[in-house]
Design goal:
It is a single chain. The chain has a single domain, classed as Immunoglobulins (Immunoglobulin-like, Sandwich), CATH 2.60.40.10. The chain is built from no helices and nine strands.
């Protein structure tokens, strides 16, 4: 295992990282595929201007929810929601397509947001920055 922390300006101040390295990350020699792990991969590009690609991976067939929240914890966009097969999936965050709680579309303002991926059993978080 590898641990570490960062001190950054803005929301959150301190971030703690824990990386587990083990046999499940090795390449099997008998031709078998490695087991799938639930994860929310990096957003690219981050910071982004109007759109960004998000990769995520459910570990099993499950109902997945990928939502974008502002710093106050308010839901601003449902990026993906529904039943997904295990494996890698990609979606696009579109800052020009925001419905939030308003009944009319509005452009997402510049700022820091949080992506939350959940499959009902596990949750992953990622910080994203929108610049204009």
């Amino acid at each position: 295992m590898i641990t570490g922390y960062t001190v950054s300006f803005g929301a959150g101040s301190y971030d703690f990282w824990l990386v587990k390295l083990g046999p499940e990350n090795s390449v099997p020699g008998d031709g078998a595929t490695p087991p799938l792990h639930f994860c929310l991969d990096a957003v690219y590009p981050n910071p982004f201007n109007s759109t960004a690609a998000v990769s995520y991976q459910p570990s099993a067939f499950s109902k997945v929810s990928l939502k974008l929240y502002d710093l106050n914890g308010r839901l601003v966009q449902t990026v993906a929601e529904g039943w997904e097969e295990a494996g890698e999936h990609r979606v696009i965050i579109d800052a020009n397509k925001w419905t939030g709680r308003n009944a009319y579309p509005t452009v997402l303002p510049a700022g820091i947001y949080f992506l939350r991926l959940t499959d009902g059993r596990q949750t992953g978080l990622s910080k994203v920055c929108l610049v204009k």
